[in-house]
Amino acid sequence: MREATLRDVATRAGVSIRTVSNVVNGYAPVSDTLRAKVETALNELDYRPNLIARNLKQGRSGMLCLVVPELDVPYFAELARAVIAAGRRHGYAVMVDQTDADPVRERELLTRNSRLTLFDGLILSPLTLSAQELRERGNKTPVVLLGEHLFDGSFSHVAIDNVSAARDATEHLISLGRTRIAAVGDQPYRTGETAQLRTAGYRQALERAGLPFDPALVRPTERFHRHLGATAATALMALPSPPDAIFCYNDLLALGALRGLLTAGVRVPDDVAVIGIDGIEEGEFATPSLSTIVPDKQQIADLAVESLVALIEQGATPAPAEVRASHTLLARESTLGRA
Amino acid sequence: MREATLRDVATRAGVSIRTVSNVVNGYAPVSDTLRAKVETALNELDYRPNLIARNLKQGRSGMLCLVVPELDVPYFAELARAVIAAGRRHGYAVMVDQTDADPVRERELLTRNSRLTLFDGLILSPLTLSAQELRERGNKTPVVLLGEHLFDGSFSHVAIDNVSAARDATEHLISLGRTRIAAVGDQPYRTGETAQLRTAGYRQALERAGLPFDPALVRPTERFHRHLGATAATALMALPSPPDAIFCYNDLLALGALRGLLTAGVRVPDDVAVIGIDGIEEGEFATPSLSTIVPDKQQIADLAVESLVALIEQGATPAPAEVRASHTLLARESTLGRA
DNA sequence: CACGATGTCTGCATCGTTGCAGAGCTGCCA
DNA sequence: TGGCAGCTCTGCAACGATGCAGACATCGTG
């Protein structure tokens, strides 16, 4: 059966379509008698407003779109949850989509037939898409970027300070007295800005502590997944002079590393201390529990939604803002001091 | 700047709106000369179709909505990924929403102003919402349910066979020679049908093996989260006669239990074997790695989307189908046989 | 050359809703 | 009693797209 429309309700109640609309929206004053009649008809027909029509008329949908590379990466799942909650507080529904970490899928966002036109705004955590591409293909949908992509000033942008986050992580390892500190997750070859910033922070910390930089201790990984962390850790321990600590560029790599070290018979933290970034819940229950740098996801989500809503509601584009979210060090078992 | 409309393009190209539409959609034959003119104008104005308008006219949006309780629960995140992929194969975009495991939020789906009218169909993994409520509030949007909610025949429904999954898990523990097997995750008090089915499977396995059922070994948990698993495991080990194996109703509980046992100085699997359900990736990297019952998430997603698309596209409702997805046992370190 | 068939192109109506302007009624005051 | 507010209520137009029917030009055929 077809959904009831305002017209159906109006006919049944013997009033004008407009009056039904007024009752539904509470816009204009409606007499009690008419209101009662209309409400009866509304219930009898189980009327539900056609939001597509309303959206067309109003030129807005009240929906934001969050696009992340992979929804089953815990960091993105936790972030998505926070963004949905933040959107809700601002009166927007947030729909989540993922690109499967596929550059082609990411670029589909820019195409003529992208579903983005359905949304009032876009929060995008890009993997390979550059701000430049985004600007050139000039989608008029307001956009806020998440994560550390080349900020070229054309988009608002929310991220933690990745250099200092990585520096904090590394300095924490140094504070334990570790001197051969490995880094897992560099991405020098592609649009891996986040990774490169973390490498920079890692090197800063070494320098400040007067520790030598050994390129053999820096392991690139194509992606930030557990099994690559395990592989990298295994490879590191096979070095002639293996590390006594590993800084992983995210928690998944670190959790994989924990597992790889265990399999290799390496004790954590006694032989090798491990730290990650992301503060995902999984790390709390790992064995040993994982030390990490915790980005304030709630804050990231809030700031992103706030910026986006500002862009949407102030028609005229306010200057794109580069917003820094905070992060904190959370030391757990994987970086306990030696007994 | 306002988005360009068909009318803008038509004016610029000196043709009718209809012709522009034909070019955009490739519907009707258009001469090369006109097509060229139109395409120039399309590019100059960076035209993008207004999908809201198109959807209104066509009476469909090409979008499905997936609603889960919590997106940062790995099972749901992994499922969401599979559903998005399945939707895509069927030509639908899937948007994900979550209810924060809040019964009130779940019921909002049924209200007059639910955003569901925007979607062609709904895939719902309900927590407390019953099929009856869903039916009574009679949303006309096609719905497919996921998970084991009371199946009353009014909705299509995809789930694994929870009784046999729980039985398989328990029998696996029994096959290791364990005799005092605990169950963590029962939900006897609320609409916890899934939990209750798993309890039934657990008891079946005990019976078949001729093992006694000890109510003290069945721990209810309000939700299926890691910390509750840890608490439950700790409590179990404090019993006068503690278990030698624990069957957790999902992997998060099991991962929490692993952690709780470790903290209590209990060795897994030597002292206590542990198994979960869900097959989330996290379990592979846990220490020890987690044995689990793996539901075929890809199959669940495919079946759900297929059923839903059938409902949508065959206007007339085909009989609601109860579909069983398959599951397999994955034995890992947490249930290794004793040395 | 007349005719129908084909191939292009256009205008109108429509999807279901809301903005707007104004119609009709009532009551109040001069 | 006339006129003006103020309150309800209504009809029309519009959001931007597509379905449909038909206009017009061109072509081939007898």
UniProtKB/TrEMBL annotation, chains A, B:
Domain HTH lacI-type: 4-58
InterPro entries per the UniProt record, alphabetical: HTH_LacI, LacI/GalR-like_sensor, Lambda_DNA-bd_dom_sf, Peripla_BP_I
Statement: the UniProt record of this protein carries the keyword Lyase: no
Pfam entry (one): Peripla_BP_3
Keyword annotations: DNA-binding, Transcription, Transcription regulation
Keyword Transcription regulation: yes
PANTHER family membership: LACI-RELATED TRANSCRIPTIONAL REPRESSOR, LACTOSE OPERON REPRESSOR
The protein's name: LacI family transcriptional regulator
Organism: Paractinoplanes bogorensis
